[in-house]
Structures are given as structure tokens and as C-alpha cells.
Write a structure and sequence with these properties.
Two copies of one chain form a homodimer. The first copy, chain A, is an all-alpha fold. Chain A has two domains: 1-54, Orthogonal Bundle (Arc Repressor Mutant, subunit A); 62-201, Tetracycline Repressor, domain 2 (Orthogonal Bundle). Chain A contains nine helices and no strands. Chain A has helices at 11-29, 36-43, 48-53, 57-81, 86-98, 105-118, 122-149, 156-179, 188-201. The longest helix of chain A is centred in the middle third of the chain and has 28 residues, at 122-149. The radius of gyration of chain A is 20 Å and the shape is elongated. Chain A starts with 10 loop residues before the first helix and ends in an 8-residue tail after the last helix. Chain A binds a DNA duplex (30 and 30 nucleotides) through helix 3.
Chain lengths: 209, 209
DNA sequence: GCCGGAATTATTCAAGCGTATAATATCAAC
DNA sequence: GTTGATATTATACGCTTGAATAATTCCGGC
């Protein structure tokens, strides 16, 4: 008749654990399975605790969405910042986007689960917009440096257009690779991306690949 | 104390109505809201009827997924078949993919809702794979004709690679346009796609745009 | 050591879920 | 018209859901 023993953890860590558990459950069993009970079991706590840290289950799920996007953004940013030349950064950007830390069943499943709510829920829409613009800005700065160093600097509107095109292409390849990865060779997507970006930017072959 | 009156309709029509109602509910309120009661209410029948036409609710949802994919495939195919020259077909393909009959909140929401299950459920995986390959084949044949007529015919592996790259780019733009369409000018995505495909195929400017 | 506040558990509740089954209204055939 | 088959409705059942509340356990400050 005794209660479970438990130990207290700092608020920051507990929130992080709950968000991690939320992502785990969604990734492994889908949004439908992301119930208060499943998530709390995964986090090793009881359901009531969720409402102690989040005003509702939905708010916790939104926090998990933010966490996923932030992680993807940071992964790519770290890879880019580790390089200095425009060419290396461009290569790092592509590689990071198509590397299997980002391109895997877990990430695409999570991403799709959330994207499905973007048009239905204003809260999700706001989060999506925020990170979409961040992704775009990230790529634009890499692209600007790369083109400058190649002596192909562009005016702002042209740069923005190229950014959208390249971003779209890489997103598309990311999607293809993630969802239908078994149809690609190991590094095929990255190779295609290198050559495609060269072409999109009007550069000669071999500038990236 | 009288029952609702009703009238019988053919099996084909009833199934179609139920599938349409399923898509409507998912598009408007998400997969979570796609319950037997919601869907049957939308279709103007009672819940029990669903189990009369489908062995389970999940099977009906899968049928709805197939219906969505088939519709997208057919929309593009109709547009392509209405043209004859390779250039016109290529243009029609791009335009159809980025036209707002395919690029809209409804379609992207439905698509994302289903994609989120592809990695979790073998039945969804099978449906996805079937239509992904059909989309690729569709594009490959358009691309082959276009390149042949431009005197730039490719061997089979190169053609497949180009197909994947172009498909990825168009998918990415489709995604961007669908999810963040308010950030684009009306025809911006299609224009970007024209120029990007030219570049991806190594053709001169103006071949498509 | 023990006290008090707060983190955590335990329990409860009404609502909604998918499915099974029984009752009944419809419609074609004659 | 009646009848027979069956499409459709109605109802019930056992479970699960998110949330609210009450009861406890932990642990830093004293």
C-alpha cells in the first residue's frame, strides 16, 4: 500500500525530460499515441506531473515541436560554423541537411506529425513560421558568402530567390531521402544536391562536388 | 420515437461518400478528429455504417490516403496529357505541381497527416511507396521526352538521377509554397521552378521560362 | 532533527473512443 | 401489395482519454 518512491529533479531538467519523452513517443508510435499516460510512463513519472509543468498536454506537444526545430537548426548551424570558407560552409550546410542525423525515420515522422497541425492550429503555425524563416536566413547567409567569394555576388532580391530555390531543393531531397531512403545509395542525395546547387547558382561543375 | 428516415445508395457511391467525408474531416480538423462519429456525421449517416463498408476505421483511413494520392497523380497526369511537345509537357508538369489545386492548405494538411504514419504503419508504407514510384515514373517520362526533343538525351542512370533531383526540387517547392505560401508572390514558385529545372538540366535560359 | 512548501503520486470523473450486436426501414422482385 | 434480403439505424459495452483534486513524500533551510 506504499506509494512509489520518487526523487525531485530541477524544474529545467524535468521539463526537458518530459519534452524528450513526448518526442520519443510521437516518433515511435505517432501523435495518436502521445497521450498523457504514455508520455508520463516514458518519462518515468505519473500523469499528473505533466499538468504541473504545462498548462495542458497540447502545450507540452508544442514545446516538443519547438525543441525539434531548434535541434535541427542547431545541428546545421554547428556544422556550418565549424567551417570558415564559403565553399566549405556551403558543403557543410548540404551535408548536414542530408546527413542521417537529420535524415532519418525519427525526424521525418516527428516533422510530419507536427506539420500536419500547422494549418489547423495557430500556435503550430506561429512556431512553423518562426523556424522556417530562421532556416531561410541561415541558408541565405551561407549562400551570400559562398557567392561573394566566388565573385558572383548578387543583389538582395536575386539572392532571396536563389535562397528559396536552393532551400526548396534541399528540403525536397531531405524529404525524399527521409521517407524513401532505401531507394537511394548512401551518399546519393548529397551528391545530387552538390551538382544541383552548382547548376542552380550557375556555377561551373566541380565548384562544390 | 421514430428512427431517422434514410435512403439507400449504391455501394460504390456510399464508399466514395465515406472516403470523401474522411478526407474532409482530416483536412479540417486533423487526424485526431477523424473519429467514426465525426466522419459518419459528416457523411450524413450513423457510425455503424462505416463498419458495414470497411472492416475497420483504419482501413477506411487508408482508403482515403490512396484516394488523395490518386487524385494528385491524376491531376498532374491530366495536365501533362493535354499537351504534346516535350517542352509543353514539362511546363505543364511544373505548373500542375505548383498550381493551387495541388498546392493548398487542404492538400498539404492531408498529405502530412498521412506521411506521419508512413514510418509507423506498414500499410501506409506500402501505399506511400506505390505512389512515390508512380510520381517518379511520371516525371521521368516527361523529362525523357523533353530532353530527347532538346537533343540532350541521357542514358538511363543519368536520367534517373536527374529525375530524382528535379522531383526533389519540385517537391520541396511544393512543400514551401503549400506551407508558407503567404510568403510567395502568386506565381513565384513556378517561375523559380522553371529556371531551376533549366539549370538542373544544364539547358540555356529561356528554354522553359 | 524537524518544518513547511512544493514536487510528485494516486484517485476520480465525465466524455469520447472503436466495435459489436440487435432492431428496423428501405427497396427490388414478384 | 407482400415478401425477403440487406442497408441502415440505434443502443450498449468496455476502454482510454485529458483534466481536476486530494493525499503524500521529499528536501532545503533552520
Amino acid at each position: 500500500m506504499s506509494r512509489r518512491t520518487f526523487h525531485r529533479v530541477g524544474e529545467v531538467e524535468r521539463r526537458r525530460d518530459l519534452i524528450a519523452a513526448t518526442l520519443d513517443v510521437i516518433a515511435e508510435q505517432g501523435l495518436r499515441a502521445a497521450t498523457v499516460r504514455q508520455i508520463s510512463a516514458r518519462a518515468g513519472v505519473t500523469g499528473g506531473l505533466i499538468r504541473h509543468y504545462f498548462t495542458s498536454k497540447d502545450q507540452m506537444v508544442q514545446a516538443a515541436y519547438r525543441e525539434l526545430m531548434q535541434g535541427m537548426l542547431r545541428t546545421v548551424d554547428d556544422a556550418v560554423q565549424a567551417c570558415s570558407s564559403g565553399r566549405d560552409r556551403m558543403r557543410a550546410f548540404i551535408e548536414a541537411n542530408l546527413h542521417d542525423t537529420v535524415t532519418n525515420a525519427r525526424t521525418i515522422t516527428l516533422w510530419a506529425a507536427f506539420i500536419g497541425n500547422v494549418k489547423l492550429d495557430p500556435d503550430f503555425a506561429a512556431i512553423h513560421r518562426e523556424y522556417y524563416l530562421a532556416f531561410l536566413d541561415q541558408l541565405e547567409s551561407v549562400l551570400a558568402q559562398f557567392l561573394d567569394e566566388a565573385g558572383q555576388g548578387l543583389d538582395k532580391p536575386s539572392l532571396r530567390e536563389k535562397t528559396i530555390a536552393v532551400n526548396g531543393m534541399i528540403d525536397g531531397l531531405w524529404l525524399e531521402q527521409s521517407v524513401a531512403g532505401e531507394l537511394f545509395r548512401e551518399t546519393e542525395a548529397a551528391e545530387i544536391a552538390y551538382r544541383s546547387v552548382e547548376k542552380l547558382l550557375g556555377l561551373g561543375e566541380g565548384m562544390l562536388a
